[in-house]
Amino acid sequence: MLSRLPAVVFAFAAASASLAYGQSALTSGDPLIEARETRAWLTRIQDAANKRNFAGTVVVSAGGTVASTRIAHYCEGRDQFERIDSLDGQVRNVFRHNDVVHTVWPQRRVAVVEQRDQMSSFPGLLQAGSDRVQEFYDLKPVAVERVAGHEANVLVLRPRDKFRFGYRLWAEKATGLLLRAEVLGERGEVLESSAFSEVSIGIRSQLDSVLLPVKRLDGFRVLKPVLVPTRMEAEGWALKASVPGFQQVSCVKRPFDGAVRVVVASGAAEQALQTVYSDGLTYVSIFIEPYNAERHSRPMYTAIGATQTLMRREGDWWITVMGDVPAATLRQFANGIERKH
Amino acid sequence: MSQWSESKLPPMESLSSLVDGELEASAVARACGQWRDDHETRAQWHAYHLIGDVLRSDDLATDGEHDAGFLAAFRQRLANEPVVLAPSAPSVRQAPIPVRRRSWATPMAVAAGFVAVAGVLVVTQMSGGLSLRGGQSQADLARASNVLGGTVVVAAGPASGAVASDPPVVVLNGQLIRDVRLDEYLAAHKKFGGSSAPGGPSGFLRNAAADGSAR
Description:
The complex is a heterodimer. By secondary structure, chain A is α+β, with helices and mostly antiparallel strands.
């Protein structure tokens, strides 16, 4: 009896601890409760990323390459500030104040300014898809592990069909901040992994580090690509067969003039129609543009880490489908595209 | 004095040239012999070096006893070192082996060099071909996969449920194939996710570095 006591106490403590965070173990078997808890976990992760102050180094390993990035995020009232500095390869800084994103390449003296709300209805993505997440993924908290010096809940998201990848997530216990994430292939192999190697949570805001650099762009070539919201149908396209779980969340015409390239091709910018579909967790972009023999040399299918790309010619058009989903999903998207007129 | 008179150059001049490393080979041998036999030449030799040292740095202008002490200790330790027994020269029976090894090694080295060159050529062709040229055959891709030993994997079609009309599968590991267009699509695609938006569950984590690593 005595020997069993600690185990019972431990189990009770563990249960109350997880309840304290608003997520009990997902063992009820009731789909409604499971859906609610899945959403609770994901909302918690999203909220932490948006509302917490944190700074750290993220290491992403995909397809045999490793890249590290310094990231700092501050939230002051309703304002969000973010600074992202690439630590490998060419120097690149991203400064974000709410929806305005400056991407700066100091060595090339080029800056790109973008309005994120032109792209999509973020942060509506999770809300739009959250109830469907449970329909297409099975979320289970499986363990508590230590990542980058913090205790974290380990969550496994298993896809319920073959149209998407699985995920293993490490969410910090106290805040829900995502500390580590892995994208899992069909056989459970890790396709891509990203993790904080160190992170400080709940730090003091240093807004100057985000706001000041974008005011010092004298002598920079500042590019402001304009994204025009549109609809596929208005552009003469339709997706006759979608992929289960994926809903359209954005459709824009974007210039593809190589904003990040130093040499801009002469004359008019190339336009591409970008339509984004999401299943609430991951998303797929479809780019449609006029076929150009010089640029579009050959159809191909590539995989870089978890990101798959399918490119092919459809008559007078060049179709590129891209996303962190299995090849079959991209093929289904590509096959479903139809020219209306 | 008589021994100096044998040399063509005045002795001090040849010594000076030796310090500067400007003496011809035959003269070097003569000057060294002189250094060995004549105490004054050795003293002069040391003086030249001391002058050079002082010109370079005051720290080097130390009293010569320190050097002498070091040298004495060094000689002592060298004398105490065990003698390393060198292996004997190869016997007649062993002689053919190195010859055979050499005849085998040379073609291999050549082959390795060829493979390296071929690999570079193919990669260059591919990166050029992807963005500039049309109609490069799949055989090129296949050859690349062979040469690069699996770094670029090319298959006739996707592994499962392949459709005959599907393009070849090119699995990119790392940045071997650089295609500016692909980079642009990637940047546009990843941008949608934003950096802290839940575009993926790993949203801000992956997107933070994803387009950074792409260039």
